[in-house]
Amino acid sequence: MSYTKSYLNSAVENYTHELSTFFERNALDYPVGTIDHFAFRLLDLDDYKNFLKFILPLSESAQFIVRDNRHLGTAKLLSPISFGRFGNPAFIEFKESKPETIGKEHIGLDHAEILVSDPESYFTQLKSKKINTLIH
After folding, report:
1. Contact 12, 83 (CB under 8 A)
2. pTM score, whole prediction
3. Residue 109 DSSP SS3
4. In whole angstroms, what is the distance from residue 84 CA to residue 135 CA?
């Protein structure tokens, strides 16, 4: 895949719309907090390298590791990306898919982690609406 700033902006716009729809559909309060970082899942090592060629010139700094034969990286962007009311994160995570998940998982903008000021009350609200949560 060829990555461009237009592709990145479109992925963020679509994700922000889906996130807003999720909050509205479930009658959830918008979190008092902001997105800490967002992440891209990449198809394989070639796709990972391709993404690096795109994202590194847009980055102030970056770090990389290989864990369980998978390439993972983070970067601090020169300019934060707007997720509308969810904030403007400057950090991006990017990761090569696990070989056993290729073709089974979504490729592209994978997640955004939202930091909230009062996690306990927020998780209580989610649980009361029977919404599964992923806590890191």
Report:
1. yes
2. 0.85
3. strand
4. 23
**Residues whose CB is less than 8 angstroms from the CB of residue 19 and which lie 6 or more positions away in sequence, other chains included:** 83, 86, 112
The predicted pLDDT at position 40 comes to 95
pLDDT, tens digit (0-9, with 9 covering 90-100), for 74-129: 999 999 999 999 999 999 999 998 766 666 667 899 999 988 888 888 888 888 88
What letter does residue 114 receive in the DSSP assignment? E
Amino acid at 105: E
What is the four-CA torsion angle of 31, 34, 37, 42, rounded to 10 degrees?
A: 50
Contact between 39 and 95 under an 8 Å Cβ cutoff? The reply is yes
Q: Is the dihedral of CA 1, 5, 36, 114 positive or negative?
A: negative
